[in-house]
Amino acid sequence: MLRQGFTGLSMAxxxxxxxxxxxxxxxxxxxxxxxxxxxxxxxxxxxGLVGPAGWCVHYDADQRxxxxxxxxxxxxxxxxxxxxxxxxxxxxxxxxxxxxxxxEHIGDIYGEASLxxxxxxxxxxx
Length: 126
Ligand code: SF4
Ligand code: SF4
Known about the structure:
Bound molecules: iron/sulfur cluster
Number of domains: 1
Distance between the termini: 23 Å
Strand content: under 5%
Number of strands: 2
Shape: globular
């Protein structure tokens, strides 16, 4: 699940890369602003996903995959509708916003100089 982190514009095109999963680390202490973009019902849903180590209970850490991908919550989906609802982001700004969110997550989980960050940057800059 992506979180807020918009910092600027780019010519890159957002995409989720395989074997990442950085946004599936849901530890609420890392996301103190949840109430700013989720409804009370969504916060309940979110809290129900948080496993003992902070990762989503539906995250397969070995495969780095969502095990309920087709049924994942709205707040896990990068769409113009979900991002407008959560962050009041216009469709035209979704791409840059989502890229910044991913870079923030990947940097937090794997590091700014990680292979994961390199793979993401390579994918979105194509
Ligand atoms: S942080 Fe971005 S690239 Fe990584 S799994 Fe989440 S959406 Fe995909
Ligand atoms: S439901 Fe899936 S996409 Fe959403 S946080 Fe959990 S593992 Fe990640």
